Amino acid sequence: MSLSKKQIVAVSAATGVALAAGALGWFLYDAYNGRIEQEEELEQQISAFRRFNDAPVFPSSKTISESKTNQASLVAWFDAARAYASRGDRKIAEETPPIFKQRLAATVRKMRSLPGMVGGKIAAPGFQFGFDAYLGDGGVLPDVKDVPRLAAQLDVIKHIVATLAKSGALEIKELNRIEPPPPEETQAKGKKKLSKKEKKVEEGPKPTSLEFGLSFLARPDAIVKILNAFSSDQRFIMVKNFAFKATVDDIVTRMDADAAAKAAAAANAGGTSRRRRRAASEAAPAENVEIKTGGLIADPEFGSPIQVDMTIVEWDFGTGGSVPPPNQSNPATKEAKK
What we know:
Helix content: 40-55%
CATH class of the domain at 97-247 and 305-322: Alpha Beta
Strand content: 5-15%
Oligomer: single chain
CATH superfamily of the domain at 97-247 and 305-322: Ribosomal protein S6/Translation elongation factor EF1B
Shape: elongated
Order of helices and strands: HHHEHEHHEHEHHEH
């Protein structure tokens, strides 16, 4: 069926109107969506403005300037604190296993010869200061990969033993190198990938620590000196798990000795006259009074040794002694010490 000219014009007009209506509808829908997005963005901006406006510190030019000043002060304080904390860092020289073992044996002999009460020495003959696996008859040569850590541990142990000897310790009973537990494989596999910002933060030397278990004998005054020496040490040393116990009860020992002396005196006086026995019995109360008031008073310098058990942790901040010592007149350094 053929369409007339009028019908063709009408169909064309209807098609044009339909297309125009569709285009208009699309534009209206797009404009509506754009308006919704703009309203949401406006609401977010208004919320952000209200949050900043209602904040305790208003973001004015004054507070922004003060924030930058505080940031600079914080950086200066951090640098001073890091320099102060790392002033005891040491650079450990690289050694081959044979050379390290020779130095280890010589150092252990020197530490063993320090003054103490074991035949005038601070440790018993054959005491290896935690290096039994590498010294003595069954000693082995350390692996190449273990030498740097062993050398660092030896450096710390040498310092600890010297501090104990200088402060008056009588005998070192035990000294153990406490190794950290191996990292779990699950943690290594499940470790997430660091972002660029996190990688930037992790740049630079990493702090590491070495831990030691220690047991020694000392009198009370020496224990105080030892703790003071560690707390004021240039090395970053921490004392934890501190415990002590008496090796001998001085009061009971003196009372037993006094009772034995009285019994011996009474036995020796058995053949004397009644007059002398009466005089001895009258003098007994005076002796008891003397013991209670003076004879049983503890002397921290001459009492029996006390056994001390502790764990010592030394931190190294990875500077190798390259960080210059902090300026003592710098206020940031004084704050870092606090």
